[in-house]
Design goal:
Blueprint lengths: L1 H13 L1 H20 L1 H35 L4 E6 L9 E5 L10 E10 L2 H6 L2 E8 L16 E9 L6 H17 L5 E12 L11 E7 L8 E8 L3 H8 L1 H34 L2 H22 L8 H15 L21 E4 L13 H10 L4 E6 L18 E5 L9 E3 L16 E4 L3 H11 L9 E8 L4 H5 L3 H11 L3 E8 L7 H20 L7 E7 L9 E3 L13 E4 L7 H15 L22 E4 L3 H10 L5 H6 L3 E6 L12 E2 L6 E8 L3 H15 L3 E5 L13 E5 L6 H6 L4 E3 L6 H4 L1 H14 L13 E4 L6 H7 L1 H10 L10 E5 L9 E3 L2 H12 L4 H4 L21 H4 L1 E6 L13 E12 L3 E5 L3 E8 L33 E3 L14 H23 L11 E10 L5 E8 L11 H20 L11 E6 L7
Parallel strand pairs: 9-10, 9-14, 10-13, 14-15, 15-16, 17-20, 22-23, 22-24, 24-25
Antiparallel strand pairs: 1-8, 2-7, 3-6, 3-8, 4-5, 4-7, 11-12, 11-13, 16-20, 17-21, 18-19, 26-29, 27-28, 27-29, 30-31, 30-32, 30-34, 31-36, 32-33, 34-35
Helix pairs in contact: 1-2, 3-7, 6-7, 8-9, 10-14, 11-13, 18-28, 21-27
Membrane topology: Multi-pass membrane protein
Main location: endoplasmic reticulum
Subcellular location: Endoplasmic reticulum membrane
Length: 1098
């Protein structure tokens, strides 16, 4: 027995089996850690992490590729244009798909393949007209266009490269073999840049879908082919991604992958933490104990023959560690804050729907916001819950208790209710808005609000009850309305009162529609308060909650008298159903307002056991709205219900006795305090841009509201009043022509009878022939115009200008001091280009021969002095070619001119600004400029050099280095010398009178005698720069008229005095009268010199 016991003890504690178990345990311990559930979880996590990493890496690459394809537009888009030839200019169209990207600059060019035929070479300059259209362009025929869909327009000149006959023959001989075998053809490809960095606004409607190309020329042209090319000009990120494709792929894919991994890891961590926090500790403990028991059982099964007892001790140790990990609980908190804004108000607001609620009171917050935005002080007292259908009632015997509502975000139910007002119990008063909520009726709210709250804000001017959730038209609604009851209470308290109700047809409370209705309601309230009729106690206003309600009519109405005709307005209800006034009002209004039917009963009775004589029932208010709508349909037009049905606003004047006030009928005209005039100011010269914008602000500020837009497509309505002050090429004349009463532009379409020198000469000549006594005879030198392509054809050109030829022939026999000098002017040039002096035919021929040859001035410019015209009279005319100018005119040179001793006897001319408006009034701006030549005057025959120094004869500041900034080059006319030898003391006033008379006469000559070349519009005006030269006898001679004059010549010193005041007078005389904001009587510095009624009116 003892041996047996010993053997057992040895086997259990110290025998061979025990040693084997210890050895196996030591060998298997590393492997147990590798196959434990903790390790398996780690393996799984690593696999999931690696898989997610690779997946997100692939997704990042794909995402970048998609982003690249969508973000980087097609670099080059081109379309071949199939031109159409006929009686009109060649033209063609092309369409696009979706190749363009918004806000991406594009360079647009046109490529023309032209044969070098004699007819093409004779064409000379021609114009290329390109127009881009948005989708749904009505027509792109050459005689029609749709200005509403026009996105961009450009018109650029082009010309075949000139080659002298000798060079042309040599070139053809060299290329003859290529021409013979057909490898080349006698053609030239012109690349003409049409638009630079043109961008398209966001939206498919603002991207081109089609284009129209037109080749404009006075002569027929032959064209092989035409192509329009769009080249994307990348900047910023697009440039980097396009130029550095691989680098951008690595960078942006890595960024996307990093962000994705961080987001995924954070999400994984949060989800794990939440799951662990939500799991009860007991379950965790049981799960871990179960895991340990399973592990212990596995070990026991493995060594059950050895009877090892060491493992349970280890399991117990792991259990202790697990419990230690469980001893750190998760913590969290949350908080809510309410904020608002308070403003003092002279108007009291209540309703019968309670505080803001998307269920039954969705409009009151918007109305209060609109009233405050309009500058009114608003004090708000509302029922604490839904109080509809309660009329003008008070609750007797009940203690009325207030709570305090702090409104939150507009159209959101995030306002907060408090038992005490701001500043109570040490709470800081942040000055936010705070409304009073009363646990009573709307009428009680009015009483309490008038006499017990907001006394520090002063007396209430008007009580506004509403807006009600649904209409309050006809007697059936009005007699039960808590909204009208609140206004009635205000009326019997001696206050002007308005009941406001919104009739809706959709449960979808669109904030935009609500905002429009609220702003419209504010205008109606303001009108009624300003035009309150004696004898009216209150108004019932019903506004249909429909888009565009502010544009519909507002009518005075009578209240339709009607009755319930379909039986009871109550229905049996389930006694177990809870009473929720807000839900009931929502159910009634939703069904009634939108369908006009009675809501279906929820349940009928709750019958007790037995058969009592009277059945036990509960009832709910459920009026049949069909009774109201039927009475409106059957009743006469013009009542309040009919007006709202027609989506107009009804205003019903009432007495406090529920009777409408007779005698008020007709439409109420609501007008804005200031009309809105849209303006597009788009000038290339910042000098002009700033002055025009400032003039609009100063002169329209009191009469109208000026709203700047960049394009006419931004107009809210195509017929909205709009004023364009733009460069001539960018003016939308189609908009001007189609809307003569609302669209005003700063230029006439056709006025070359005045601004083209040879046309002006013909205009004056024709007028003088018909009116021999015209003042123009003594203030405009007769001119002779001719056309010339090359100097060798001068003899033929002078055959028609026989007076000029006769004068030049006589000059050959006269001494120099008696020769008649002439001034040559290109008919189509400006800024003084191409002007020369001559007295003989040889001198004239030398001028044209100079223009026939290429100019070397550019190569010699480095060695020339800075003095203008010191080396050559052509220094200002670099690049002029006779064949490009073509039209020329010659006038007798005015000698001697008036010279002022204070200006070193320098010659000067007078720049006068003339404003022409409509059809036709002409004004002369009294502030004029005197522009002086660079050098002292010397008569042409007195100069030693055969080549005349134009710096002595030309007064255009463009010839002078430094221009108008040179001291004394530009002076105010009225500041010139007061005393001039040979002239009277009032010589400046006399010259001004001459200028006014000549200006009025020349505009009348163009308007009546050259109507084809001067076409006036009633909705256009234009400022012309008119130049006069005064001779030594004090006579003012008309030189020329300039459209879009260079205002920059005025300089900075006279900028405000002359140009600034000019634009302000322009707004007063031309812009404001057109929009009905004043009269064009020419007050101020604008003198009316012509008032012609040519029968063209807006």
């Amino acid at each position: 027995m003892a041996d047996s016991e010993y053997t057992d003890d040895e086997t259990e504690y110290g025998g061979p089996s025990h040693s084997q178990a210890v050895l196996m345990d030591a060998l298997l311990t590393p492997f147990r850690a590798l196959v434990s559930k903790t390790a398996l979880r780690i393996y799984l996590s690593i696999i999931l992490f690696s898989g997610a990493t690779l997946l997100l890496l692939g997704v990042s690459g794909i995402a970048y590729a998609i982003f690249y394809l969508r973000f980087i537009p097609t670099v080059g888009v081109d379309r071949e244009i199939h031109l159409q030839f006929g009686d009109l200019n060649p033209w063609g169209t092309a369409s696009f798909e979706s190749e363009f990207v918004s806000s991406q600059p594009y360079d647009v060019s046109v490529s023309l393949d032209l044969p070098r035929t004699p007819s093409n070479l004779d064409v000379g300059n021609f114009m290329i007209d390109l127009t881009l259209y948005a989708p749904e362009t009505a027509s792109v025929l050459p005689t029609t266009s749709n200005s509403q869909n026009k996105i961009s327009h450009s018109c650029r000149p082009a010309i075949l490269t000139y080659a002298s006959p000798l060079v042309d023959i040599a070139r053809r001989l060299v290329r003859l073999p290529l021409y013979v075998v057909g490898w080349r053809r006698e053609a030239e490809t012109l690349e003409v840049s049409m638009m630079e960095r043109v961008e398209f606004a966001r939206g498919t409607q603002n991207r081109p879908q089609s284009l129209r190309l037109e080749i404009q020329s006075d002569r027929k042209m032959q064209i092989y082919s035409a192509r329009v090319e769009f080249r994307a000009r990348f900047t910023g990120l697009r440039w980097f991604m396009y130029r550095w494709k691989l680098t951008s792929f690595v960078v942006f894919s890595s960024i996307f992958w990093t962000v994705s991994m961080a987001s995924a890891s954070l999400t994984w961590f949060v989800l794990t933490w939440i799951m662990q926090s939500d799991t009860p500790k007991g379950e965790i403990k049981e799960e871990e104990e179960e895991e340990e028991e399973e592990f212990s059982k596995a070990i026991k099964d493995e060594f059950e023959d050895s009877g090892s007892s060491s493992e349970p001790v280890k399991v117990k140790k792991e259990e202790t560690e697990t419990r230690l990990l469980q001893s750190y609980p998760a913590e969290g908190d949350n908080a809510g804050l309410g904020s608002g804004r308070e403003s003092a108000e002279a108007r009291g607001v209540t309703n019968d729907d309670g505080p803001p609620s998307n269920q039954s009171s969705p409009y009151v917050h918007s109305l209060v916001h609109s009233l405050q935005a309009a500058g009114h002080t608003v004090s708000v007292v509302l029922p604490h819950q839904q109080r509809s259908w309660i009329g003008k009632a008070h609750i007797v015997g009940a203690s009325v208790k207030p709570t305090y509502f702090r409104p939150g975000t507009l159209h959101q139910e995030d306002g907060t209710i408090h038992h005490l007002p701001r500043g109570s119990n040490g709470e800081p008063d942040d000055g936010g808005d705070e409304w009073i909520l009363i646990d009573s009726t709307p009428a009680s709210c009015v009483q309490i609000g008038l006499y017990h709250y907001f006394q520090e804000r002063g007396p209430i001017d008007v009580v506004v009850s509403g807006p009600n959730y649904g209409r309050n038209t006809t007697a059936l609604f009005a007699l039960s309305s808590g909204t009208i009851g609140g206004a009635m209470e205000g009326a019997v308290c001696g206050k002007r009162s308005i009941a406001l109700s919104y009739a809706f047809s959709s449960r979808n409370h669109d904030p935009v529609i609500i905002a429009e209705a609220s702003q419209h309601s504010v205008r109606v309230i303001e009108y009624l308060c300003a035009n309150w009729t004696d004898g009216v106690d209150l108004y019932s206003v019903n506004v249909p909650l429909e888009p565009g309600v502010s544009q519909n009519q507002v009518l005075y109405t009578e209240m339709l008298e009607n009755k319930w005709t379909s039986g009871s307005c109550f229905e049996p209800a389930d006694p177990a159903t809870g009473d929720d006034p807000e839900l009931e009002e929502q159910r009634l209004r939703d069904v009634g307002e939108m369908t006009g039917k009675k809501p279906e009963p929820e349940i009928t009775t709750d019958e007790p056991t037995g058969q009592p004589r009277i059945k036990h029932k509960h009832f709910k208010w459920a009026p049949n709205f069909q009774d109201v709508y039927r009475s409106v349909e059957e009743g006469p037009a013009g009542n309040d219900g009919w007006v709202v049905k027609e989506q107009m606003t009804s205003v019903t004047p009432l007495k406090a006795s529920f009777k409408h006030m007779p005698g008020l009928t007709g439409e109420i005209k609501l007008s804005d305090k200031k009309s809105t005039i849209f303006s597009v100011v788009d000038c290339d010269d910042p000098y002009v841009q700033a002055l025009v914008e400032r003039a609009l602000t100063r002169r329209l500020g009191d009469a109208a509201r000026s709203q700047r837009i960049s394009e006419l497509s931004e107009l809210p309505d195509t017929s909205a009043p709009v004023f364009q002050y733009r460069e001539y090429e960018r003016l939308d004349f189609e908009h001007v022509m189609s809307r003569p009463s609302t669209s005003l532009a700063n230029a006439y379409i056709i006025r070359k009878a005045l601004i083209r020198k040879h046309y002006l000469s013909n205009t004056v000549a024709n007028w003088i022939s018909k009116h021999p006594d015209s003042i123009l005879r003594n203030h405009f030198k007769p001119a002779f115009d001719f056309e010339l392509d090359y100097s060798e054809f001068l003899d033929e050109a002078l055959l028609e200008a026989y007076e000029l030829r006769e004068s030049l022939e006589k000059n050959e026999e006269r001494p120099d001091s008696e020769k008649e000098w002439w001034i040559l002017k290109p008919g189509m040039s400006d800024r003084g280009q191409g002007i020369r002096l001559f007295s003989t035919e040889d001198q004239l021929r030398e001028i044209f021969e100079e223009w026939d040859e290429p100019s070397d001035i550019e190569d010699e410019s480095d060695s020339e002095n800075a003095t203008p015209q010191s080396a050559s009279p052509a220094a200002h005319d670099e690049g002029l070619v006779t064949s490009q100018l073509r039209h020329f005119m010659a006038q007798p040179y005015i000698d001697p001119p008036l010279l002022l001793p204070s200006s070193s006897n320098r010659k000067f001319h007078i720049r006068t600004y003339v404003l022409a408006t409509g059809a036709l009034k002409v004004y002369v701006f009294k502030e004029m400029l005197a522009l002086f030549a660079a050098k002292s005057y010397c008569a042409p025959h007195e100069e030693e050099d055969e080549v005349k120094d134009l710096a002595r004869h030309l007064t255009n500041t463009c010839f002078q280095e430094g221009g108008s900034s040179n001291e004394g080059s530009v002076r105010r006319f009225w500041d010139l010398d007061h005393h001039v030898p040979g002239l009277s003391a009032d010589w400046k006033e006399k010259i001004f009178e001459q200028i006014c008379a000549v200006t009025g006469e020349v505009f009348e000559a163009a308007a009546r005698g050259m109507m084809v070349h001067f076409q006036m519009l009633p909705n256009a005006f234009e400022i012309f720069g008119v130049d006069f030269l005064v001779d030594a006898d004090g006579n003012a001679w008309l030189l020329e008229l300039n459209a879009f004059p260079d205002f920059g010549q005025t300089g900075e010193d006279l900028k405000e005095v002359v140009v600034g005041r000019l634009f302000e007078e322009m707004i007063d005389v031309a812009v404001k009268p057109f929009f009905g904001l004043g009269s064009d009587d020419g007050k101020g510095d604008m003198k009316l010199v012509a008032d012609l009624d040519l029968g063209r009116h807006a």
